[in-house]
Amino acid sequence: MEWTPAIRAGGRVGLALIVSAACMARAGASPSLTRCPPIAFVKRNGHGLRGTNATMHSHMTGVGAAICVYDPAKPEEGAKTIFEDKTGFIMDISPSYDGRRLVFTYKREVPKRQDSHHIWEINADGTGLRQITSGRYHDFNPVYLPDGRICFASTRVESYSLCQDFLACALYTVAPDGSDVRRIEYSTLCDVSPSVMDDGSILYTRWEYQDKNIFCTEALWTVNPDGTRVQLFYGNTLTVPNALYGAKQVPGTRKVIAVMAAHHYPPLGAICLIDRSLGHENVEGIVNITPEVPYRPTVGKHWRETSWGPGDVFYPWSYTDPYPLEEDLFLVSYGGPLKGGPQRYRLFVMDAQGNKTLLYEDPQASCFCPVPLRPRQTPHRMAGAPVVGNRPPPADPKGEARFFCLDVYQGLLDKGVTRGMVKELRVMSQLPKKYNTEGPRYSDHYPAIGEGTYYVKYNYGTVPVAEDGSAYFTAPAGVELYFQALDKDGKEVRRMGTVTQGTDGETQSCIGCHESRSHAPPAQLLSWKRLARPPDRITPPPWGEGPVDFVKQVQPVLDNYCVRCHSGPKPDGGIDLSGDKTRLFNMAFETLVFTPGLVERYHINPGPTGNFPPLATGSWVSRLTKLLETKYKEVDDESRRRIYTWIDANVPYYGTWDMTRPHTFGGRDTWLDVGGKPLPWFAEFQKAYQEAFGKAADEAKGGARGRIAGVKHTDINLTHPEWSRVLTRNLATSAGGLADDAKAIFKYKDDARYQAILKAIEGGKAALLAKPRMDMPGAVPVPQQRDFGRTF
After folding, report:
1. What are the helix and strand counts (H, E) for the chain?
2. CB of 576 within 8 A of CB of 713?
3. What is the mean pLDDT of residues 637-648?
4. Separation in Å, CA 325 to CA 91, 322, 509
5. Beta 400-405 vs 507-510: how paired, if at all?
6. 324-334 pLDDT, tens per residue?
7. What tens digit of pLDDT does each residue of 64-99 get?
8. Residue 329 dihedral angles phi and psi, to the nearest 5°
9. Which candidate, 186, 742, 654, places its Cα nearest to that of 446?
10. Is the pTM of this model over 0.85?
């Protein structure tokens, strides 16, 4: 390819692309600039955004940005700057439907780290600059709605990302004058990059992980401007790429164009076209039209597949910010070639085969977010959407929605489930993360919740499923919800691997349980008649609605049926099911989750990437369930249901985000203080351990932050120090221990080394009782800073 100056005027150089036939990467001529309207774009020194594409709004950005306009029909005039801030940052822009105004994300005085991103507006001629949103929040990714309101993403959710130290966000709308801010999406992680479809619905990227892989699920969803009808658009099981970003509908088609991007990086990658008519998860429906960025759309070979790395490869000088002008003409920003390129982003027009023509470049800066400045057809305004100037009051987010399932067996019968097997649906939620990740992570999350889910799980209770498979019930509005199909014993038949929501007064409906969305509902008259009767109310579990809490919900069952044999210095089979406290949890919890196969759980880093199949997950396949059904039949029905509910919630331990030991390992540590410094009792233990065993019990190196070399969390019993395994497994059998007399380190309990370790652990017990953990009576949580406009 040869780049040559095409027109020189006024000291400005416009560039045209001269491409020889031999150099064409794909068949067909490059698109003509004559079809391209005047545009606006953002000019920055570099991309300027850092971190995971779903949380980059709260990262430190680059400094200096401008909004420029350019008419390719008048290249001699060059680009005109209509707004510039040399100490601020402009993330993105979006045009009004008449092409006369631009709404954009703008942060002032970046070096001072005091301002947050907010939504601003400016006329395309540079007049009328005004701020629309304000407050200590990050508001970003704005787009005009057909009714005149503006949709945007915001940290007004007042919660945090689960596995990173950044802010969560969801979709909101606001009136043009900045009033009447409404939340329309209730996901608990991150919703970003909204755009408007022809039918008036909002297309956006949603990052979620409901018991699934934390890296891969950044798919495309749609929601109506009033928050109703949230539904998957495409790609919730893709492993390559990890994320789809910046999606927009291609005019005149039902296809969308988007960036195929990595998870841990800004949205720079390949440009793809998605044809959802081929299926919501079908990789044949997504085509990489820029194969020099070698993302190959992939789904796992099995639902348990955890592979995500190939989809997280970063291509820093690739493509971003696609904007469709026509069915076969798109604007893009491109930093390539990937090797040997100019290392700055330029603007191109591109066709559906990936052929491109240079539209504009700045010799000193990079150019992003090209958008057209011409009238476009205004999308359909949804029935019931508010009219600016005559708005109804916002829906009550604490109200109720209704959910109707025509026949739960649709999607199950061909997978081993028989009619009559499903008796109830359990209604579950995931609670927004209350505090930021500001301490060392345990098992990748902070504060520590358990050994599967990263979330505090909330159990509302169950609703009945009729013999014909129908279910019609109310559930809380304005919260993230998911459902589990249960058998007569309360075991999980199938788990919903994503989340939904309802707005106050809305009725959501589905045909079945993971049935194909392309299927028409069967003509089951009795099921439809169910709608003529009032919906069922949720029945709370006998132990009460609320967070799934191991100590409150499961431990009482173990205390009642198990601990008489499975506790003490010599628990039967080495299985300790007592509530005795360990470093972060208790003995029973660690025994159940770390004994292979005993409970089926999914640690989500990395977790499954496919849809959960029926009769293959949670309590249905756990060995503990089989033991309860065969060997321990005396366990009563409620007690079994307590255990099944805990397993099917993906084995959380804590039912709260609150902490009494913030900034320590996992936010719950009883061994090490802030900064990894041993607590006084543990320093005493380390000294005694060294003297007894001739090796150090220090913090492990090589990425195992917080781990203590040679000492498991269950080796120290902070409830009964004398039962600590570090003592019993090294104490002679004749003295009441577990070690062979000839090989025992401690022959007698009065061994000075034994007594030194015991004394140290007794100090740990006293320290724990003096400052109870959140799994203990008397715990006093320590409040943490909650700043939702912070820049990290």
Report:
1. 9, 36
2. no
3. 98
4. 21, 10, 35
5. parallel
6. 999 999 999 99
7. 999 999 999 999 999 999 999 999 999 999 999 999
8. -150, 125
9. 654
10. yes
